[in-house]
Amino acid sequence: MPKILIFIFITHSLSAAEFGGDRASFHGFIMHEFMLEGVSCKVVEPKQAALGKPWIWRARFWGHQPQLDKELLKLGWHVVYCDVANLFGNSEAVRRWDSFYEFVTHKYGFNKRPVLEGMSRGGLIVYNWAKANPNKVSCIYGDAPVCDIKSWPGGKGKGKGGGKVWQKCLSAYGLTDEAAHEFKGNPIDGLAPLAKTGVRLIHVVGDADTVVPVAENTRIVEERYKKLGGTIKVIHKPEVGHHPHSLKNPKPLVDFILKAYETYKK
Question: Please, are residues 132 and 94 in contact by the beta-carbon 8 Å criterion?
C-alpha cells in the first residue's frame, strides 16, 4: 500500500503543468514552450489525458495542417515537438529525440510508444529515430515524407530538389555529393527492425508531387516494408502535389493511429 501511495503522489506532482517555460494556446489547449538541453520544445496538453498518456510527436512544421493533432487532443492525447531543424534526421537529431523521449516518459509518465508524425522533410527524423528505437514506437504517420535524401533535397531523380538545401544536408551528414549515392542511412534503408517489431506505417501522398515524388520515396518504403512482412497503408490524393498536406477530414488517420496504439497501450 505505501508504494501505491508514493506512486500516486509522484504522478500528481509531475503533472504537465510543471513543464516550466512559457505558456501559450494551441487551438484552445494549453501549450508549454521550454528549452531542454538548449533545444526548443513544445508540449500541448489535452483537457483530460487518456488512459496510458498517449502522445503524437510532430517532427517539423509545427502547427501546419493541424487537423489530426487537434482531433487527438480532443481524445486525450498530448501533442509534442522537439526542434531538429536543419539536421535532416542525422545522429544529432536522433540524440536530441532520445533526450526528449527520456524526459517525457520518465519524468512525466508519457506512454512508452508514441506515434511519430513526419511531414515532408520530417520523414527523415521520424524514420531514423524509429529505426534506432523500434521498441519505442507504436506507428509512423508520414505525410508526403522525404524517404531518400537523393530525391530531396538532392534532386537526383525526377524531383525538383532543394537547391542550396542539398549542401546543408550533405554537411549535416558529413557526406560528399558522390558519397551520398552510396549512403544507406535513409528511411528507405534498414526497415527490418520496424517490421519485426510490428510498427505500423501510414503515409498520405499527393500523386502529382514533384517535390518529393512518390515513386522515389513512399513507393520504395511501401514495397520494401511489405516484403519484410510489415503493415503499411498509403492514402493517395489524385492530382494533388506536395501541398496541401494531410487530409481535410483526418478520420482515416485517427482510426489507423488508435488501432495501432490499442496494441501497445497496456
Answer: yes
pTM score? 0.91
Q: For residue 203, what are the CA distances in angstroms to 36, 44, 257? A: 30, 24, 12
Q: What is the CATH number of domain 24-264?
A: 3.40.50.1820
Between the alpha carbon of residue 67 and those of residues 93, 176, 249, the distances in Å are 26, 39, 8
How confident is the model over 33-90, as pLDDT tens digits?
999 999 999 999 999 999 999 999 999 888 788 999 999 999 999 999 999 999 999 9
d(CA 247, CA 208): 16
Helix axes of 67-74 and 251-264: crossing angle, nearest 10 degrees: 50
Domain boundaries, the chain: 24-264
pLDDT confidence tier of residue 266, bands split at 50, 70 and 90:
low
